[in-house]
Design goal:
heterodimer; A: 336 residues; alpha+beta; eight-stranded antiparallel sheet; 8 strands; 53% helix; B: 200 residues
């Protein structure tokens, strides 16, 4: 294309009426530094920018502003994802060529002479454009990197602070664990001591119980009554005390006799009842006293020769007893 | 946005964009108030329905919010930048829709509607914007209809001169000439607009 042809293409370029190849040819020419074409283009671009002012104004819906302001306030990444990018973006704000020139139009025809004639200029032009774009993006990237570095430093400081706090907490936790372990050991030791004390207490109880059993006649009497080999002799009241009666029990293990007498008369002063085991001759077993108001008495005495006795009797004797019966008989019973 | 004290769309203060770069939400809100009517009008003119114009405007403003740092005042006014961005994204949508086989607005009907655009005052614009609209509208209507139609088919429908020639069943050279002559006349008749600093 001649310069005249290129110059004539400028107003078509401003309205966006050129095909791709023609547009690229003119762009290459402009990038080559043709000032007259550049000035003409600037004026025709101004004319093109005025055209919308001639339209009858139509107000945008009132809700649209709020919608845009709201969408703009979203997270920048979210905004980027919500904005519908054109299928084939033809202009980036601020980019010199796209700003100055109209959108890219799909190639409807491609003339070989045009391509051959302007290929070199096109490559140079595109190279310059790409270099310019790259430098702009590089500058933006450097700014972003600085921001990210600042943010990273801040985050690193926060992480270090958190790490220190965590270390302190770990130390406190470890101390608490040691303390807890020590208390647990103390508790285990105390538990052992408590168990020992319980065993000792149980032993003491058993000993005490055994000791008490020997001193409590009732327990021994209860044991005697449960023995199948215990001997029993019944004593009846004699003529002087017909209402009186007695039971004599003999424990062959302990060799003790138990005389339970009831309804014997009160012993006169200076007298006592005396139990006799009678074989060939009476043998004294022991004495006991009945006071005023007494209705029963239990006499327990050791009698190894129980088996030899054929009869048992209770007589009233002077206090302290006698070697041989001397007073009246009050109770008498036959050994079985 | 329709308050009488608002700034004219054609003379948006570039410092607004500088504030937006710093995350100033109030500045972003003001930018919307100053520019949304014009951009919505442009989007609706290209796409032909309100639903898509709504979606497009949302996309455009979110893109502005995210990429406003790339704006360079040395390469044009804020509104020129916004118009270029809106038109570009709208044409992309129009082509995507055409690829999907959807109904396209009749170019002749669209052209006619532009030609009979109401030149009376609108409650949505400032005095300066109204004067600018009158100037552009007058300049456009003063063009021969064939030139106006060719320019509008290229600018608002994204058609190449070959496609316009096929659509209108006219020789390619004729279409090119119509666009060149039409744009040349507009440049002369509207030169005062950007020389006053409104655009350019």
């Amino acid at each position: 294309m001649t310069h005249e042809e290129l110059e004539e293409a400028v107003p078509l370029y401003a309205t966006g009426a050129l095909d791709r190849a023609e547009r690229q040819a003119l762009e290459a020419h402009l990038l080559s530094g043709c000032q007259s074409c550049h000035n003409a283009l600037k004026e025709y671009q101004s004319v093109a920018s005025l055209l919308p002012f001639g339209l009858t104004p139509m107000q945008a819906p009132r809700a649209l502003k709020a919608k845009i302001m709201g969408a703009r306030n979203l997270d920048p990444l979210a905004i980027d994802s919500t904005v519908k990018e054109p299928l084939r973006p033809s202009l980036e704000p601020g980019e010199w060529l796209n700003h100055l020139f109209p959108p890219i139009v799909p190639a409807r025809s491609f003339s070989l002479p045009w391509a051959i004639g302007f290929a070199t200029l096109l490559i140079v032009g595109l190279g310059g454009y790409l270099a310019w774009t790259y430098s702009v993006e590089l500058s933006e990237d450097a700014s972003k990197i600085r921001q990210l570095e600042g943010s990273l430093l801040e985050q690193t400081t926060k992480v270090a602070s958190l790490q220190r706090e965590m270390n302190t907490r770990d130390r406190v936790l470890a101390e608490m664990q040691v303390d807890a372990q020590r208390k647990t050991n103390d508790a285990i030791e105390l538990k052992g001591q408590l168990m020992e004390r319980e065993v000792e207490l149980e032993t003491a109880r058993a000993e005490l119980s055994a000791a008490l059993r020997g001193k409590i006649p009732q327990d021994e009497l209860a044991g005697l009554l449960r023995r199948p080999d215990a001997k029993v002799v019944t004593l009846a009241g004699a003529d002087v005390a017909k209402q009186a009666s007695a039971v004599l029990l003999y424990n062959p293990i302990t060799q003790k006799v138990w005389l339970y007498s009831a309804h014997l008369p009160e012993c006169p002063r200076g007298t006592a009842y005396q139990l006799w085991a009678i074989d060939q001759t009476p043998v004294s077993v022991g004495t006991f006293h009945m006071d005023a108001g007494d209705t029963a008495h239990l006499l327990v005495k050791r009698l190894p020769d129980f088996e030899k006795a054929k009869k048992f009797a209770v007589s009233l004797e002077p206090a302290g007893g006698r070697p041989r019966p001397s007073g009246p008989i009050y109770l008498i019973g036959q050994a079985s | 946005m329709d308050t009488p004290t608002r700034r004219a769309t054609s003379s948006i203060d570039p410092s607004l964009l500088t504030s937006i770069v710093k995350g100033d939400q109030q500045a972003f809100s003001q930018l919307y108030d100053h520019s949304s009517t014009l951009l919505y009008t442009l989007a609706f003119r290209i796409l032909g329905n309100r639903e898509e114009a709504d979606e497009l405007l949302q996309d455009v403003y979110l893109e502005v919010w995210r990429k406003v740092a790339r704006y360079d005042i040395g390469r044009g006014t804020p509104i020129a930048w916004l118009i270029t961005l809106t038109r570009s994204r709208a044409i992309d949508r129009l082509r995507a829709r055409t690829t999907r086989g959807r109904q396209v607005t009749s170019p002749l009907d669209a052209t006619v509607s532009s030609r009979v655009a109401d030149l009376g005052p609108s409650p949505f614009e400032t005095q300066a914007d109204q004067e600018l609209r009158m100037a552009v509208g007058t300049a456009m209507t003063s063009l021969p209809p064939a030139q106006q139609q060719a320019i509008e088919l290229a600018y608002y429908e994204g058609l190449s001169h070959n496609e316009i020639a096929a659509r209108l069943n006219q020789p390619l050279g004729t279409v090119k000439t119509r666009i060149k002559l039409g744009m040349s006349k507009l440049r002369e008749s509207l030169r005062h607009c950007w020389e006053q600093g409104d655009l350019g």
